[in-house]
Amino acid sequence: MDQSVMLSSFRTILLVPVVLCLAACGGEKSQPAPQVTLVKTEVAQLQPWQTVIRLTGDVQARVSTELSFRVSGRVTERLVDVGAHVKAGDVLARIDPTEQQADLAGSQAAVAAAEAQLRVATANFDRQKSLIDKGFTTRVAYDQAQEALHTAEGSLETAKAQLGNATDALSYTELRASASGIITARNIEVGQVAQAAQSAYTLAEDGARDAVVDVYESIFLTPWEGRVAKLTLLSDPSVTALATPREVSPTVDPKSGAVRVKMSITDPPAAMTLGSVVAAEGRSKPVQRIVLPWSALTSDARGPAVWVVDPQSHAVSLKAIVVQTYETNSVIVASGLAPGDRVVTEGGKLLRPSQIVTYDGLGA
Questions:
Q1: Contact 172, 68 (CB under 8 A)
Q2: pLDDT over 70 at 364, yes or no
Q3: Residue 340: its pLDDT value, please?
Q4: Interior angle at CA 203, CA 61 and CA 258, nearest 5
Q5: Residue 327: what are its φ and ψ, rounded to 5°?
Q6: pLDDT of residue 287
Q7: Residue range 249-288, pLDDT digits in tens
Q8: DSSP for 340-355, written as a single string
Q9: Residue 235 contacts residue 276 (beta carbons within 8 Å)
Q10: Are 176 and 89 in contact (CB under 8 A)?
Q11: What is each CA distance from 345 to 39, 67, 201, 290, 306, in whole angstroms?
Q12: Torsion of CA 282, 284, 289, 295, to 10 degrees
């Protein structure tokens, strides 16, 4: 055999084991060991949970009165403005009293005339009475004198009533505060002709105060814990008070879709002045719910979901849930989880279905 042929055959025999060894090594690399991912978990448990509702409103007087003149006339004086504190009986504005003064003078003259007629009728009746006792006059003359006396007395009473009306009308030219309080609105100016019963001022009376808030209609579907709400002054959170619902509007505001609720403030602090903006906080009755941190939430094709770890195989699977509400740092689960389920709370972004995880020493 040729020497070159022999060398070639020898090289082939030497290369066969090498090829077989490389093939075996390549087969081992094609089947890598499964990777285990470290995650943080938490066991789902029922715990008491309450809905906290916070709404803003303002402080208003429980009694707010529209003040107006009882007679018409031109406004000559305006003595107070918005924000002024007035006492009961203080003069707020005046109208021109010329017409009322003339009516008063006429009524006084009518009273004087009626009194003069009464004196004449009284004297005539006394004379007729004296004469009829002596038989020197007729019964007809006596009856006429008596009737004239009654007429004069009635005329005097009518004149006095008219004088009282005129006196009242003159007093109505001054608009006075009906109670102590703060002027919150003004609708008149000097020189303006004010009509009777036209609103001139709005008076927020001293005394009880209400916190007025607008709430959505759905809030009434939730059972609430007690009837007391906590009020906090937004400009100074250290100022607080308690309030109870006093009046709920029977209608929904067509513009905002909200219902107005007035709450009586118990012992309102001095800092809660009229118009102060306050936050009202109320809580629902506690219910048992599963609460998870927001980091546990993910989603699938159907909606919100969480990763759940199988306690035997430590494999994860995606489980759909129904979220009742989202809070600042947590998620309230309405359904989809059972107490005892181990939920991945951190590391879920890197997971895939059936992946093996470890959580030893992390969360319980």
A1: no
A2: no
A3: 92
A4: 45
A5: -110, 180
A6: 87
A7: 999 988 888 999 999 999 999 899 998 999 999 888 888 9
A8: T-EEEEESGGG--TT-
A9: yes
A10: yes
A11: 8, 64, 61, 13, 8
A12: -20
- Which pair of structure tokens corresponds to residue 289? 């719910």
Encoded tokens for 33: 């060991």
Q: Which of these, 161, 36, 174, lies nearest to 108 by C-alpha position?
A: 161
Backbone angles phi, psi at 120, to 5 degrees: -65, -45
Per-residue confidence (pLDDT) for residue 33, from 0 to 100: 54
DSSP states of 79-109 as a string? ---TT-EE-TT-EEEEE--HHHHHHHHHHHH
Which one, of 341, 353, 286, 277, lies nearest residue 315 by Cα? 353
What token pair was written down for 10? 């020898």
CA distances from 268 to 137, 173, 234, 259, 263 (A): 81, 37, 15, 23, 12
Nearest to 324 by CA among 354, 297, 358: 297
> Residue 271: CB partners within 8 Å, gap ≥ 6?
233, 236, 239
Q: Which of 319, 311, 308, 316 is nearest to 343 (CA)?
A: 308
- Are 116 and 103 spatial neighbours (Cβ–Cβ below 8 Å)? no
* Residues 175, 69 contacting (CB under 8 angstroms): yes
SS3 183: strand
Residue whose C-alpha is closest to residue 175's, from 156, 147, 194: 194
Largest CA distance in the chain: 197
Q: CA-CA distance, 159 to 295, in Å (whole number)?
A: 89
How far does Cα 151 stand from its chain's mean position? 64
- The total number of residues shown for the chain amounts to 364
Tokens 């709400």, residue located: 229
Rounded Cα distance between 94 and 190, Å, is 9
Per-residue tokens: 66: 């529209």
| Torsion angles phi and psi, residue 288, rounded to 5 | -85, 120
Percent of the chain whose predicted confidence (pLDDT) is above 70: 89
